[in-house]
Amino acid sequence: MTNTKVAVIYYSSTGTNYKLAQWAVEGAKAAGAEVKLLKVPELAPAAAIDSNPAWRKHVDETKDVPEVTHADLEWADSFIFSIPTRFGNVPSQVKQFIDTAGGLWAQGKLLNKVVSAMSSAQNLHGGQEQTILSLYTTMYHWGTIVVAPSYGDPSTFAAGGNPYGTSVTIDGEGNMKEDVEAAVKYQAKRTATVASYVKAGLEGK
Question: Which of 129, 142, 123 is nearest to 83 (CA)?
Answer without folding.
Answer: 129
